[in-house]
Amino acid sequence: xxxxxxxRGSFSGGKMLAESLxxxxxxxxxxxxxxxxxxxxxxxxxxxxxxxxxxxxxFLERFRHKRYVYLAVIQAALAEEVRHGEVVYHGHAGxxxxxxxxxxxxxxVIAPLEVRISMAKxxxxxxxxxxxxxxxxxxxxxxxWAEYLYGIDWADASLYDLVINLEHLDLENAPEIIIRTxxxxxxxxxDSRCQEAMDDLARASRVKADLALNSPTADLELEVEAEGGExxxxxxxxxxxxxxxxxxxxxxxxxxxxxxLEQIAPAVTA
Length: 270
Prior knowledge:
2 domains; 5-stranded parallel beta sheet; 3-stranded mixed beta sheet
């Protein structure tokens, strides 16, 4: 198998399920904090990176460029961590940040409100009313985040390959369901074609992050795709000089042999 992403609401049992699943498969387990730590190596604030992953933007923040930069850096860190497969990632938006990579087995874990309340009370020491308020606040933030950045409802079951409801299913049996499903579906096997797709995503994400962190191109918001050694970059530039800079930065990324800038739109002058 390749990469398994576990998406869950707060106190839905997803973290415990991910750790149990990774142990049974002898896979690495990666969480949001691991990715934030890797991404912070570029000099960004871990606090700001976490906000970019979790907090829905306010009205004023919708006009800021910083969130694009942070998400580009986070995606690059995540793609690099999972590119060789045999890993379970549990954290917000893993299935969205890895969109386009195959195979990624996208699992969503849900649990009734009463189960989540019980977990919140136990872990955070909250009373019932405080637990409900906390859970609803986090869920709403994640809903708004996904709607704003991706235009989707993060709870939409069609975004996942498997939905696990822990209302009656215990955590001891849930990993076996995921493992059995993944092993019997050929689309989740990690073959050479899948490795190429993972490498392409990692390469494209690295180019996008490097361009976002590079001063002459830091004001741009670009779309980057990779296929083998070719990288295709699209978007608008502020000046003609940035076109050459985009190519220079892209060619510095390991594995990039050709840079296609046909979708770059030069600045329009009066």
